[in-house]
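Changelog excerpt: complex records now keep ligands as SMILES alongside chain sequences, and the structure block spans every component. Example after the change:
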Amino acid sequence: MPLPFRRELPQQSASSGISASSRPDDRNLPKSATEKHGSDLYPELKELMLRNQRWAKRVGSADPGFFPRHYPGQRPEILWIGCSDARVPETTIMGSQPGDIFVHRGIANLYSPSDDSLNAVLMIALINFKVKHIIVAGHSNCVGCQTALRASNLPPVPETQAIQRYLKPLTVLARAMATEDGPPSLDLLVEENVQQQVRNLLASQVVQDDWKRRAEYGVTVHGWVYQLENGTVRDLGVSQGPPGAKPGGSRMGPRLF
Ligand SMILES: [Zn+2]
Protein backbone atom coordinates (compact mmCIF):
# COMPACT_ATOMS: atom_id res chain seq x y z
CA MET A 1 0.00 0.00 0.00
CA PRO A 2 1.38 3.45 -0.78
CA LEU A 3 2.40 5.44 2.23
CA PRO A 4 0.32 8.61 2.28
CA PHE A 5 2.16 11.88 2.64
CA ARG A 6 5.41 10.05 3.24
CA ARG A 7 7.29 12.34 0.88
CA GLU A 8 5.52 15.38 2.21
CA LEU A 9 6.52 14.49 5.76
CA PRO A 10 10.32 14.44 5.80
CA GLN A 11 12.63 13.67 8.72
CA GLN A 12 11.33 10.36 10.03
CA SER A 13 7.76 11.34 9.22
CA ALA A 14 7.55 13.52 12.31
CA SER A 15 7.06 16.78 10.50
CA SER A 16 3.94 18.82 10.18
CA GLY A 17 4.47 18.71 6.43
CA ILE A 18 5.11 22.45 6.19
CA SER A 19 7.75 23.01 3.58
CA ALA A 20 10.58 25.44 3.96
CA SER A 21 9.04 27.60 1.26
CA SER A 22 5.94 28.08 3.41
CA ARG A 23 7.88 28.97 6.54
CA PRO A 24 6.08 31.88 8.19
CA ASP A 25 7.86 35.16 8.37
CA ASP A 26 7.12 38.43 10.06
CA ARG A 27 4.33 39.18 7.61
CA ASN A 28 2.31 36.34 9.13
CA LEU A 29 2.90 37.16 12.76
CA PRO A 30 0.06 38.73 14.78
CA LYS A 31 -0.24 42.42 14.19
CA SER A 32 -0.85 44.94 16.88
CA ALA A 33 -4.36 44.88 18.23
CA THR A 34 -4.51 48.60 17.52
CA GLU A 35 -4.31 48.02 13.75
CA LYS A 36 -7.54 47.65 11.85
CA HIS A 37 -8.30 44.22 10.43
CA GLY A 38 -11.51 42.37 9.71
CA SER A 39 -11.65 40.87 13.19
CA ASP A 40 -11.63 44.35 14.74
CA LEU A 41 -15.13 44.80 13.41
CA TYR A 42 -16.40 41.96 15.58
CA PRO A 43 -15.89 42.35 19.35
CA GLU A 44 -16.00 38.61 19.98
CA LEU A 45 -13.26 37.99 17.40
CA LYS A 46 -11.22 40.93 18.62
CA GLU A 47 -11.36 39.45 22.11
CA LEU A 48 -10.23 36.07 20.74
CA MET A 49 -7.29 37.67 18.95
CA LEU A 50 -6.27 39.52 22.10
CA ARG A 51 -6.44 36.28 24.07
CA ASN A 52 -4.25 34.60 21.45
CA GLN A 53 -1.65 37.35 21.66
CA ARG A 54 -1.63 37.17 25.45
CA TRP A 55 -1.35 33.37 25.32
CA ALA A 56 1.50 33.40 22.80
CA LYS A 57 3.36 35.98 24.87
CA ARG A 58 2.82 34.09 28.11
CA VAL A 59 3.89 30.72 26.67
CA GLY A 60 6.86 32.18 24.83
CA SER A 61 8.03 34.03 27.95
CA ALA A 62 7.69 31.00 30.23
CA ASP A 63 9.41 28.68 27.74
CA PRO A 64 11.33 30.48 24.98
CA GLY A 65 11.98 27.12 23.28
CA PHE A 66 8.31 26.17 23.07
CA PHE A 67 7.44 27.50 19.61
CA PRO A 68 10.83 26.78 17.96
CA ARG A 69 10.57 23.24 19.32
CA HIS A 70 7.11 22.68 17.90
CA TYR A 71 7.57 24.27 14.51
CA PRO A 72 9.55 21.47 12.79
CA GLY A 73 7.04 18.69 13.43
CA GLN A 74 4.87 16.69 15.72
CA ARG A 75 5.12 13.27 17.30
CA PRO A 76 1.86 12.62 19.15
CA GLU A 77 1.38 9.22 20.76
CA ILE A 78 -2.38 9.48 21.03
CA LEU A 79 -5.17 9.90 18.50
CA TRP A 80 -8.33 11.32 20.05
CA ILE A 81 -11.60 10.71 18.24
CA GLY A 82 -14.07 12.94 20.00
CA CYS A 83 -17.22 15.00 19.62
CA SER A 84 -17.27 18.49 18.12
CA ASP A 85 -18.93 19.74 21.31
CA ALA A 86 -17.29 22.99 22.45
CA ARG A 87 -17.38 21.76 26.05
CA VAL A 88 -15.01 18.87 25.35
CA PRO A 89 -11.69 20.29 24.09
CA GLU A 90 -9.39 17.29 24.49
CA THR A 91 -6.13 19.15 25.09
CA THR A 92 -7.68 21.25 27.85
CA ILE A 93 -9.65 18.55 29.67
CA MET A 94 -6.73 16.11 29.60
CA GLY A 95 -4.36 18.70 31.02
CA SER A 96 -2.21 18.34 27.92
CA GLN A 97 -0.12 20.63 25.75
CA PRO A 98 -0.16 21.46 22.04
CA GLY A 99 1.60 18.61 20.28
CA ASP A 100 0.45 15.90 22.69
CA ILE A 101 -2.75 14.72 21.02
CA PHE A 102 -3.62 14.16 17.35
CA VAL A 103 -7.31 14.86 16.90
CA HIS A 104 -10.39 14.17 14.86
CA ARG A 105 -13.65 15.55 16.19
CA GLY A 106 -17.09 15.24 14.65
CA ILE A 107 -20.68 15.12 15.81
CA ALA A 108 -21.08 12.30 18.37
CA ASN A 109 -17.58 10.86 17.73
CA LEU A 110 -18.75 8.54 14.97
CA TYR A 111 -16.59 6.41 12.69
CA SER A 112 -17.70 4.64 9.55
CA PRO A 113 -15.49 2.95 6.93
CA SER A 114 -16.72 5.43 4.31
CA ASP A 115 -15.59 8.45 6.36
CA ASP A 116 -12.48 9.40 4.42
CA SER A 117 -11.83 12.47 6.56
CA LEU A 118 -11.34 10.23 9.57
CA ASN A 119 -9.72 7.47 7.49
CA ALA A 120 -7.08 9.98 6.37
CA VAL A 121 -6.47 11.08 9.97
CA LEU A 122 -6.16 7.42 11.00
CA MET A 123 -3.62 6.73 8.25
CA ILE A 124 -1.46 9.70 9.20
CA ALA A 125 -1.72 8.78 12.89
CA LEU A 126 -0.85 5.11 12.37
CA ILE A 127 1.57 5.18 9.45
CA ASN A 128 3.41 8.43 10.02
CA PHE A 129 3.21 8.95 13.76
CA LYS A 130 2.73 5.33 14.82
CA VAL A 131 0.47 6.40 17.64
CA LYS A 132 0.19 3.94 20.52
CA HIS A 133 -3.42 4.63 21.39
CA ILE A 134 -6.69 5.60 19.73
CA ILE A 135 -9.19 6.96 22.21
CA VAL A 136 -12.84 7.15 21.24
CA ALA A 137 -14.21 9.76 23.61
CA GLY A 138 -17.93 10.27 24.05
CA HIS A 139 -19.39 12.59 26.62
CA SER A 140 -22.50 12.96 28.76
CA ASN A 141 -25.39 15.05 27.49
CA CYS A 142 -24.18 14.72 23.89
CA VAL A 143 -26.43 16.68 21.57
CA GLY A 144 -25.69 14.32 18.67
CA CYS A 145 -26.84 11.36 20.77
CA GLN A 146 -29.89 13.34 21.95
CA THR A 147 -30.83 14.07 18.35
CA ALA A 148 -30.45 10.44 17.29
CA LEU A 149 -32.41 9.28 20.33
CA ARG A 150 -35.24 11.64 19.48
CA ALA A 151 -35.25 10.52 15.84
CA SER A 152 -35.30 6.87 16.92
CA ASN A 153 -38.64 7.47 18.67
CA LEU A 154 -40.23 8.73 15.48
CA PRO A 155 -41.24 6.79 12.39
CA PRO A 156 -38.29 6.53 9.95
CA VAL A 157 -38.18 9.34 7.38
CA PRO A 158 -36.00 9.86 4.29
CA GLU A 159 -32.68 11.41 5.32
CA THR A 160 -32.78 14.62 3.31
CA GLN A 161 -30.40 16.63 5.48
CA ALA A 162 -26.70 16.06 6.14
CA ILE A 163 -27.19 15.75 9.88
CA GLN A 164 -29.87 13.10 9.36
CA ARG A 165 -27.62 11.10 7.02
CA TYR A 166 -24.62 11.49 9.27
CA LEU A 167 -26.49 10.42 12.41
CA LYS A 168 -28.32 7.52 10.75
CA PRO A 169 -26.05 4.79 12.21
CA LEU A 170 -26.56 6.28 15.66
CA THR A 171 -30.31 6.49 15.14
CA VAL A 172 -30.34 2.84 14.06
CA LEU A 173 -28.31 1.94 17.16
CA ALA A 174 -30.72 3.82 19.45
CA ARG A 175 -33.69 2.10 17.82
CA ALA A 176 -32.04 -1.30 18.28
CA MET A 177 -31.45 -0.58 21.98
CA ALA A 178 -35.12 0.17 22.67
CA THR A 179 -36.93 -2.40 24.80
CA GLU A 180 -40.56 -2.91 25.70
CA ASP A 181 -39.91 -0.45 28.51
CA GLY A 182 -39.01 2.25 26.03
CA PRO A 183 -35.96 3.86 24.48
CA PRO A 184 -32.53 3.65 26.14
CA SER A 185 -31.43 6.45 28.43
CA LEU A 186 -29.18 9.08 26.94
CA ASP A 187 -26.32 7.97 29.21
CA LEU A 188 -26.70 4.38 27.99
CA LEU A 189 -26.74 5.47 24.34
CA VAL A 190 -23.61 7.58 24.87
CA GLU A 191 -21.77 4.56 26.31
CA GLU A 192 -23.04 2.10 23.72
CA ASN A 193 -22.15 4.52 20.95
CA VAL A 194 -18.56 4.71 22.18
CA GLN A 195 -18.36 0.93 22.32
CA GLN A 196 -19.83 0.65 18.81
CA GLN A 197 -17.26 3.08 17.43
CA VAL A 198 -14.48 1.10 19.13
CA ARG A 199 -15.81 -2.02 17.39
CA ASN A 200 -16.04 -0.17 14.08
CA LEU A 201 -12.43 0.97 14.39
CA LEU A 202 -11.15 -2.46 15.39
CA ALA A 203 -12.80 -3.90 12.28
CA SER A 204 -11.54 -1.11 10.01
CA GLN A 205 -9.04 -1.76 7.26
CA VAL A 206 -6.73 0.93 8.54
CA VAL A 207 -6.45 -0.58 12.04
CA GLN A 208 -6.20 -4.11 10.67
CA ASP A 209 -3.40 -2.96 8.37
CA ASP A 210 -1.64 -1.35 11.34
CA TRP A 211 -1.75 -4.62 13.25
CA LYS A 212 -0.27 -6.45 10.26
CA ARG A 213 2.53 -3.90 9.99
CA ARG A 214 3.33 -3.52 13.67
CA ALA A 215 2.16 -6.89 14.98
CA GLU A 216 2.12 -6.85 18.80
CA TYR A 217 3.29 -3.23 18.76
CA GLY A 218 0.18 -2.13 16.90
CA VAL A 219 -2.30 0.42 18.12
CA THR A 220 -4.71 -0.17 21.02
CA VAL A 221 -8.23 1.25 20.80
CA HIS A 222 -9.94 2.54 23.95
CA GLY A 223 -13.42 3.79 24.83
CA TRP A 224 -13.84 6.67 27.29
CA VAL A 225 -16.68 8.94 28.38
CA TYR A 226 -16.16 12.49 29.61
CA GLN A 227 -18.55 13.56 32.34
CA LEU A 228 -19.61 17.15 31.81
CA GLU A 229 -21.03 17.11 35.33
CA ASN A 230 -17.65 17.04 37.03
CA GLY A 231 -14.96 17.17 34.34
CA THR A 232 -13.71 13.63 34.83
CA VAL A 233 -13.15 10.92 32.23
CA ARG A 234 -14.40 7.37 32.69
CA ASP A 235 -12.70 4.40 31.02
CA LEU A 236 -15.36 1.98 29.77
CA GLY A 237 -12.91 -0.91 29.97
CA VAL A 238 -13.27 -1.98 26.35
CA SER A 239 -9.65 -1.47 25.30
CA GLN A 240 -8.34 -3.82 22.67
CA GLY A 241 -4.96 -4.08 21.04
CA PRO A 242 -3.49 -6.47 18.50
CA PRO A 243 -3.04 -10.17 19.20
CA GLY A 244 -0.05 -10.69 21.48
CA ALA A 245 0.06 -7.08 22.70
CA LYS A 246 1.36 -6.60 26.22
CA PRO A 247 -0.54 -3.79 27.95
CA GLY A 248 1.73 -1.35 29.69
CA GLY A 249 4.86 -2.55 27.93
CA SER A 250 7.00 -0.59 25.56
CA ARG A 251 5.07 -0.20 22.36
CA MET A 252 7.64 1.60 20.30
CA GLY A 253 8.67 -1.48 18.37
CA PRO A 254 11.02 -1.56 15.44
CA ARG A 255 10.85 1.32 12.99
CA LEU A 256 9.47 -0.25 9.86
CA PHE A 257 9.50 2.68 7.51
ZN1 LIG B 1 -21.40 15.37 21.62
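Strands lie at 78-83, 101-106, 133-139, 220-227, 232-235. The chain has eight helices and five strands.
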